[in-house]
Amino acid sequence: MTRLDLARTNKLGYAAVIGLEGYARKAVDPVLYDLIKLRASVLNGCGYCVDMHATDGRQRSIPVRKLFAVSAWEHSPTLFDDRERAVLALTDAVTRLGPDTVTDEIWANAAAHFDEGELGGIVFAIATINVWNRLAIATEMAPPVDAKHPVE
Predict the structure, then answer these.
(1) Rounded to an integer, what distance in angstroms lies between the CA atom of residue 97 and that of residue 128?
(2) With a threshold of 0.85, does the pTM exceed it?
(3) Which of 103, 131, 109 has its CA nearest to residue 40?
(4) Whole-number mean pLDDT of the chain?
(5) Which residues contact 21 (CB under 8 A, 6 or more apart)?
(6) pLDDT digits (tens, 9 = 90+) for 7-60
(7) 3-class DSSP state for residue 84?
(8) Do residues 101 and 7 touch, judged by C-beta distance below 8 A?
(9) Alpha carbons 74 and 77: distance in angstroms, whole number
(10) What beta strand segments (E) does 8-58 contain?
(11) Considering only CA atoms, which of 14, 11, 24 is closest in space to residue 128?
(12) What are the tens digits of pLDDT across the range 102-119?
């Protein structure tokens, strides 16, 4: 059980995040979007979101090996193409904010694969999942276990 149902108690704030989610989802390639969401969720330690985005990735037919390897993508060079690796590096940098995280090298690598509009969409996607992770962790959301979401 969660501490607080933000969709009920803070409808306008929740709707604003849903709006951002809708924009980001349309702005980024669906497979890249799932990888971004899963990677940021792993970094942030959000069990609810890791479960959700791993499940979404399986439904999108992302290979299970690739979904597992998101947690160690830097050491799995054969499982991710250059575009995916650039997105995962940018996801790491934006999620782990600090003085030396979003370096010119990381940005240039991403910019070599995506135009400015695509890069903007990717940054919004990373920011959005970081918001969701923080909301889910703060309210103690737990992955569902029921007939619709069995533990395999």
Answers:
(1) 14
(2) yes
(3) 131
(4) 94
(5) 128, 132
(6) 999 999 999 999 999 999 999 999 999 999 999 999 999 999 999 999 999 999
(7) helix
(8) no
(9) 7
(10) none
(11) 24
(12) 999 999 999 999 999 999
For residue 76 the two structure tokens come to 């799995």
- Tell me which H or E stretch contains 42: helix 30-44
Q: Are 38 and 50 in contact (CB under 8 A)?
A: yes
**Three-state secondary-structure class, residue 134:** helix
Instruction: Please tell me the total number of residues recorded for the chain in this structure.
Output: 152
Listed in sequence order, the residues at least 6 apart from 120 whose beta carbon sits closer than 8 Å to its beta carbon are: 27
Q: How far apart are the first and last CA of the chain?
A: 21
Q: Which residue, among 111, 90, 113, 86, has the nearest Cα to 102 in the 3D structure?
A: 90
Q: Looking at this protein, which amino acid is placed at residue 142?
A: A
CA distances in angstroms from 68 to 32, 81, 122, 136, 151, listed in the order given: 15, 16, 21, 21, 16
d(CA 48, CA 45): 9
Say whether 5 sits in a helix, a strand or coil. Answer: coil
Place of tokens 């999620």: 95
Q: CA-CA distance, 12 to 17, in Å (whole number)?
A: 9
At 146, give phi and psi (nearest 5°): -160, -175
